[in-house]
């Protein structure tokens, strides 16, 4: 690859994402453990008079903690994990070189069980315009770079060259 | 806005978790708030109104050694499963129902009048609202606490309230 090729996902990005996943998993594990500890303590402090209140408190604590775990597991851990696998695919698999005027469109969508993406148009001076996708988190960087060459893997933008 | 959208996309998970959480802790607390027959005395009251939790807590303040808890239930509590009442230790019932529930009652130990309708006076009136007739305390025919005297001790505590 020419030196002026810029990867959309660098080694640093990959390490950051791995670290983020680990951090979130640890945090969520600690949150779950803390909620469980609180509930076990409440159960141990239960007596005849306060049993109904303690049971309600346990339900509320475990429900709220569970909601937080579900939310962050889905939208941080799983989402980052998907982006990590997507990035690994972009960095390791065979690339297609596309030359032309690159436009990152506003068209956003999410492929089920995959990363959120935006559509990218590459208009060569001769030939039909090509459409590929770019991961939403990398769309702004690509837009600002305004590259003349894109490298794509399975229809996803993986790297670019600035030729202007 | 995005947070709200995310929440709605996972609403089914949140609802399922809330239900599971309520069921799980409900189940766990049936064990937390109960114990074996040997460690508890159960009182069943066939009365119009009863503050069962408060009465149980009051009786537990001076309960005999060896007991972990005293349970107080109204008859409505067990209407779906009469088996649970078979092992009741103490029964407080109106005079008019003695014949109906005689299978549950220990005939040898007799009974004690706990509420005198004519005088309007009775035991534990702070916790029990009696009806318009006399009420009697009986011991359960299958009570596990006759021989060890604990059923009698709890009955005396109740009479003293």
Protein topology:
The complex is a heterodimer of chains A (about 160) and B (about 160).
Chain A: E1 5-7, H1 11-44, H2 51-92, E2 96-99, E3 101-110, E4 116-123, E5 130-135, H3 136-145, E6 149-153, E7 156-161
Antiparallel strand pairs in A: 1-7, 2-6, 3-4, 4-5, 6-7
Helix pairs in contact in A: 1-2
Chain B: H1 2-9, H2 11-32, E1 40-45, E2 49-50, H3 52-60, E3 69-74, H4 83-86, E4 90-94, E5 111-116, E6 121-122, E7 128-129, E8 135-139, H5 150-159
Parallel strand pairs in B: 1-3, 1-4
Antiparallel strand pairs in B: 2-7, 4-8, 5-6, 5-8
Features:
heterodimer; A: 164 residues; alpha+beta; 2 domains; 4-stranded antiparallel β-sheet; 3-stranded antiparallel β-sheet; 7 strands; 52% helix; elongated; B: 161 residues; alpha/beta; D-Maltodextrin-Binding Protein, domain 2; 6-stranded mixed β-sheet; two-stranded antiparallel sheet; 5 helices; 33% helix
What's a quick, concise take on this entry?
Chain A has 164 residues and is an alpha+beta fold. Helices cover 52% and strands 26% of the residues of chain A.
């Amino acid at each position: 690859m020419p030196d002026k090729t810029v990867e959309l996902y660098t080694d640093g990005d990959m390490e950051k994402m791995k670290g983020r996943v680990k951090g979130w998993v640890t945090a969520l594990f600690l949150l779950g453990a803390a909620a469980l500890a609180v509930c076990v303590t409440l159960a141990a402090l239960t007596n005849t008079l306060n049993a109904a209140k303690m049971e309600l408190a346990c339900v509320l604590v475990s429900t709220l903690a569970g909601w937080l775990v579900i939310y962050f597991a889905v939208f941080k851990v799983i989402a980052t994990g998907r982006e990590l696998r997507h990035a690994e695919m972009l960095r390791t698999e065979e690339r297609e070189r596309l030359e032309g005027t690159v436009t990152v469109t506003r068209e956003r969508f999410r492929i089920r069980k995959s990363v959120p993406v935006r559509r990218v148009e590459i208009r060569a001076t001769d030939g039909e315009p090509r459409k590929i996708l770019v991961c939403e988190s990398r769309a702004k960087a690509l837009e600002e770079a305004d590259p003349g060459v894109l490298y794509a893997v399975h229809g996803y933008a993986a790297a670019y060259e600035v030729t202007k | 806005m995005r947070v709200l959208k995310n929440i709605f996309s996972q609403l089914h998970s949140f609802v399922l978790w809330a239900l599971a959480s309520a069921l799980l802790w409900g189940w766990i607390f049936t064990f937390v708030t109960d114990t074996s027959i040997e460690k508890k005395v159960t009182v069943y009251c066939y009365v119009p109104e009863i503050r069962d939790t408060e009465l149980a807590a009051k009786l537990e303040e001076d309960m005999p050694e060896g007991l972990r808890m005293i349970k107080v239930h109204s008859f409505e509590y067990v209407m779906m499963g009469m088996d649970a009442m078979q092992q009741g230790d103490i029964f407080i019932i109106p005079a008019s129902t003695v014949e109906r529930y005689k299978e549950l009652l220990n005939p040898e130990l007799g009974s004690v009048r706990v509420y005198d309708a004519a005088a309007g006076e009775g035991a534990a009136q702070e916790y029990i609202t009696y009806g318009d007739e006399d009420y009697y305390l009986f011991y359960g025919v299958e009570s596990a606490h006759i021989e060890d005297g604990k059923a009698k001790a709890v009955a005396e505590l109740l009479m003293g309230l």
